[in-house]
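Researcher: We're teaching a course module on how sequence relates to structure. For the next exercise, students receive a sequence and then see the predicted structure as C-alpha cells, so they can try to spot secondary structure elements on their own. Here is the exercise chain.
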Amino acid sequence: MTALLVVLVVAMLVGQQLGQPIVLGFVLTGSMNAEPANMAPGDGFIAVPPALAGDIGEDDVVTFEAQELQGGGLTTHRIVDETEQGYITRGDANPFTDQDGPEPPVQDSQIKAVALQVGGDVVVIPRIGVAVLAIQGAFSAASSALSGVPGLGGLAEGDVGSSMVLVGLLLLGYSLAAEAVGGRNRRQGREDRSHERRSETSAVVVLIAILLLIAIPATASMVIPSGTNDITIVSSQTPSSDPTVIEQGGSVEYTYNFTNDGPIPRIAVVDAASTGVDVAQNSLVAERGKTATTTVTLHAPAETGAYVRSVSEWQYVQFLPASVILSLHSVHPFVAVVAINAVIIAMVTAVYVSAVGLSPFRFRDRKRDLSLSDRIRRILRRWR
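Model: And here is the predicted structure for the students to work with:
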C-alpha cells in the first residue's frame, strides 16, 4: 500500500511539473464543487489518457489546456455540448459555459486527460491535491537551496524527471557499491558476530524503488512531449507575408524541428493529424543534443476563412531499434511505450540481480544496545 501511495504521489508531482496529469489529477478551484462531480478544491481524480479513454463526448469531465480561462493553463471542466467548432465546457458549479466567455471551443488536441467515471460519477479522491501541493512546495524550497551545488542546477529549473532518474541511478550505484564492500568485508573475515546485531532491508523493495524512479520519468519523457500541435491558418484572397495567411487554394512549407535535449538517442514519429497537411519524412532520429528536421506543408482550401491544421508527434527513447519502434507505433503508440519500458526494466533488473542478488541487505549495528547517555559519553571521550 505504501509503495502504491509513493507511485501515485510521484506521478502527480511529475505531472504538475510537466503540465500533464499522470495517473492522477486534481482541481484547484471550486468550479467543480457541485452536483454531479462535487469536487472540492484539492480533491483528486483518476486521469485517463485520451488515447485510452475512447470516444470523448458530452458529460465527460476532461482536463484541457485552456487558452483564455484564468490566463490559460490546465482546466478541469465537464463537456456539456459538442459542435462542429469543438467542445462546449462548463464547471459543474458555474452558471455559464466557458464559451460564453472568451474561451473558444475546446479541440481534441487540447484535452490532456479524461476523469474516470464509474456509474456516471467521477471517482473522487478527497484532498490528495493538498498533499501534493505541500510536497511540491517543499521540493521547490529544497531545489532553491541546492541550486548552487555543482551538478544540481537542473533541480532549480524544475527538471524533476531528470532528477528522479538520477536518484534512481545513484540508488542503483549505491546498492552495487554496498554489496561490493560487504562482500569484501565478509571475505576478509572482519565481522564480529559476538558483538553486533543485524537489521535487514529487502533487496526486492530497493529494486522496486529503483525501477519506479527510472521507469516513471522515462515514461513521462515519452508521453508528455507527445501529442498534437494545432496551427490556425487563414485562407485569404490576397497573398501575405504572414506564413499563416495563405492565398486560397495555395500552400506553404515550413521546417519542423525535433530536438533531443536528453542523454539518450530519441526517435520522433511525425504525422498529419488533419486534412490539408503533408509531412515529408515521418520518422526523425536525433542523437544527444542534436536536432532532426522534416518539411511540413500546409494547404489552404479554396474557400476563404480560418482553418485548423494539426500535426501529431510521438517521442520515444531509443532502447529498441528504430524499425522495431516504428512497427510497434503503427499498432498503437502506447504499445511502443510499454515495450521500451519493458526493455529498461529488464536491463536494470538484470544488472541489479547479477551484481547484488535478491538476498536481504544486512546492516551491522554495534551500538544498538547502548543507551543514549552511554552513546553521548562515548562521543565525549573521543574529544578528550
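Model: If you want an answer key for the exercise: The domain at 227-317 is CATH 2.60.40 (Immunoglobulin-like). The chain has nine helices and 19 strands.
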